[in-house]
Amino acid sequence: MDELRRLSLLLQGGGHLGQESPARRLRHRLRTVATEHPAVYLPFARRKYPGPSPRVIGSGTQVVIDGFTRSASTYAVYAFQVAQQLAGRPLVPLAHHLHAPAQIMTAARRGVPTIMVIREPHGAVLSQVVREPGVDLLDALWAYHRFHEFLLPFRDALVVADFAEVTGDFGAVVRRANRAFETSFAIPGDGADEAYWRTRLIQLRPTLSPVLLGFESGEVSLAAVQEHVRTVLPTARGERTWMPSAERDRAKSALEEAWADPRLDQARSRAEAAYRVFVRGARRAAA
After folding, report:
1. SS3 162
2. Which of 19, 104, 133, 248 is the Cys-Cys partner for 9 at CB 3.0 to 4.6 Å?
3. Which domain of life is it from (predicted)?
């Protein structure tokens, strides 16, 4: 969906508090609960998402990078895969973008190297509502705290990376993962070529090119993606993120007003507490 279309729906009230239909809200909550149960959700997800992206964990998965939606998982996936390819490493089969506790829990139980991305609830939830204007704020907060509370018992089997660290120094995250899982993945850096392709491929992701999505999952080489970009997508610009400033300011004000609604106090506090506990434990583990 175009960014301006999302904004239009948002300004009409979509995504605010208590304005969605009961049936739609029930479906969202049922899906949230289902994603906590691997035996139920993972077989369903494999049928719904046969590939190449999202990719569900399987017997050949070497790494999992996932987390609650809008927590920089896309950046992490591209930073990781571009670094591996530029270092001349083999393709790395990667499970990602499912945004389901079942995926992360299964990876932890199997001992698969897993980087769980996390973002504070204000940023993650408001970003989700902008992207998915049919999601009620209360339901998004409810899903946020359930996601992170459910995964707390598995935290020590994961490398947890906060949004700022993922987007600011993902190399440090991969170093921690290498230490924790005794792996030797290439460390993402800020070289000009690496930064260019990481950024360019993220910009092009909304084209949903199967070649590009296959690269995310470790099924297509960077060389093949580069050739695809040059020959098939030479003029593609990706999704437009620019918005007129007045509309952007209205959207921000509308969301901030809804975020501060006293009816959200309990859900907001519980989500923020879940985030603090998760990050506090992750920082102790990294020390």
Report:
1. strand
2. 133
3. Bacteria
